[in-house]
Write a structure and sequence with these properties.
Elements (H helix, E strand, L loop, with lengths): L1 H12 L4 H23 L6 H53 L8 H18 L10 H55 L6 H11 L1
Amino acid sequence: EELLDDAEKAIENSPADSQILDQLGNEKLQPLNALIADIDNQPIPNEELKKRKKALKKRAQTLNDKHGKKFANAKEQEDLLKKINDELSELEGLTGNITSTYGQPKSLPEAVEDKDALNKINERLGPLPIDEVADKPTRDALVKRAEQIRNEVNTLNSPLTEEIKKEERLLQDGSDILGKINDLGIQVLTLGETGTPEDNLKKIGQLS
C-alpha cells in the first residue's frame, strides 16, 4: 500500500508535463502494476485479504486511468502550444519583413502586394485557438503577442490603403488625360477629310 500511496501523491502533485508524467509512469506505475499482478496470482487465505486485494486493484486501476488522462491532456496542451507558437513566430516574421521595407519608395504593384500580405496575416490571426490554452499566464502572453502583430499590421495597413487609393486616382487621372489627347488627335486627323472649308474652320474653333 505504501507503493500505491507514493504513486498517487507523485501523480497528483506532478505538473502538466508529458515528459515528467511519462517518467512517473515508468518509475511509479510500472512497479506498482507488476506488484498488483503478482498479488493477483497469489492464493488469498481469507475474505479480509480478498477485500483488501480487490480495493488495492481498484485504486491502482483508478490511478492508471488518472495518469493516462493527465498525460493525454498534457500532450494535447503541448501540441496546441507548439502549433500556436509556430504560427505566431511565422506571422511575426512575415510582418517584420513587410514593415522593415517601409521608409523607402515603393511602386503601386508592390504596395498592393504588401497590403494583400498584411490582410492575409490578419486573417490567419483570427482562427488561432488561443482560448483553448488551459494555463492563464501562458494564454495571456499568447494573446498579447497576437495583439502586437495585429496592431503592427493595422498601423501600416491604414496609411498603405490611403496611399494606394491616391496612386490609383493619379493613374486614373493620367489615363483620362491620355484618352482626351488621343480623342483630340483623332479629330485633328479627320479635319479636311470631309466637309467644306467653312465646316472645318468651325471644328477647329471647337477643338481650341
